[in-house]
Amino acid sequence: xxxxxxKNSYTILFAVAMVVVVGSLLAFTASSLRANIDENQRxxxxxxxxxxxxxxxxxxxxxxxxxxTAEVAxxxxxxxxxxxxxxxxxGKIINTLSREDFLKSKAEGAGKEPYLVDIKKEQxxxxxxxxxxLPLFKGTQNGETVYVAPIRGKGLWDAIWGYVALDKxxxxxxxxxxxxGETPGLGANIKQRYFMDDFYGEQLIDKSGTFKGIKVxxxxxxxxxxxxxxxxxxxxxxxxxxxxxxxxxxxxxxxxYLPFFQSL
Amino acid sequence: xxxxxxxxxxxxxxPLADNNPITIQVLGICSAxxxxxxxxASIVMGIAVLFVLGVGNVVISLxxxxxxxxxxxxxxxxxxxSLVIIVDQVLKAFxxxxxxxxSVFIGLIxxxxxxxxxxxxxxxxxxxxxxxxxxxxxxxGYAVILIIVGFFRELLGSGTLLGIPVLGDPIEQTGxxxxxxxxxxxxxMPPMALIIVGLIIWVQRSRNKALIED
Lengths: 264, 214
What we know:
The structure holds two protein chains of two kinds. By secondary structure, chain A is an alpha+beta fold. In chain A, 36% of the residues lie in helices and 22% in strands. Chain A has one domain (72-262). In chain A, helix 1 packs across helix 2. Chain A is globular. In chain B, 63% of the residues lie in helices and 2% in strands. Chain B has eight helices and two strands, in the order αααααααββα. In chain B, strands 1-2 form a two-stranded antiparallel ribbon. Chain A binds chain B through residues 3, 5-6, 10-11, 14-15, 18, 22, 25-26, 29-30, 33, 36-37, 40, 44, 62, 157, 180-186, 188, 223-224, 237-238, and chain B through 34-38, 40-41, 65-71, 74-75, 78, 82, 85-86, 89-90, 92-94, 96, 103-104, 107, 153-154, 157-158, 163, 171, 185, 188-189.
């Protein structure tokens, strides 16, 4: 069987057939696996929020153990006492919605569980001058009320995001970071325990109530991170841009919650 | 070796040393620099490439008589990209944790020149079985270099292997750190990977003079 593969007509035909076959194959895979993937991502969000809140299976000093996928729904229901959504516009919180109100709301990006709010889309809404939603998850840690806020920003290669637990004075009570494609061994280490744990106890606002943020600082003279009121944690070697991304997302996103914490 | 003829065996063993994709063919350097800062990432990347190159080589080899030569590079790219994306989607649905570890490698696999290089140089002109062996051999050769580079970079750069501290604790000053040893942060940077690859090339060529080009 000899086909003349040099002919233009054959080339075009082959290209069209290839696109159709590959296209439908990918579309089929994506749509048939969609439900499973969404479910996995939903579970992951719950696990991450609980982790930041301090509800996790960590045993040693180096491991990161989430609540297991089988138990996460129950754990989320019992530990997250309240899901709030703040509507934010022009530097002010114009509305505070309860979970029930938010589920009923017809506004763009609303009408779902608050923990499923797409931070990326909310950031885009704010950029185009619209109001954005800021989810907040209330829980208890060692008898004290903590609020977990989601943050999102840019690393070196791709998106980075996280959840930060704050007490009423905006002192960090837990942090979880993740990334889509930072360099393994360098920027990807923002996911390591030693980096995330450094944030514990750090302050976000100074005594006068001005928002300072937490800087991932190079050349910080406090590698063991014992000084908790310097608004700095020790940076990761070789991951300057990822570290700057972490500083920036803490500054940009957590600052929006300042009016809420001041009103407590 | 009953299963493999002498020629077939050579397809697997050659790329491990005398025709190594990284040190001799100089393919796949970019990913060898990018992800070898720790040993675990090197091993994961090695396994991922092993899978993609093995399967991809067979697919391209089966299609070799019907691929129009004018658009063969595009066809190869589509084959490898869709393979990788399908695997990624399946892992996301059924092995979510694993897929999170691998996500960073997806882009690196699609653009890995070893894969395109072996499609072009071998699979387009040989049968599926030979192509499969060639794919496995080259992926193993690639993995060996990645693991060597990853071993030295993680050990000297972070003082750990597979994330386990082997030299003591640099902050608490235990182990070798108590006598003044310090981790070399420069080892974590991509240039040091290039230097280590260079050293491997040097050692390899000084042991086998036949490999030295004029």
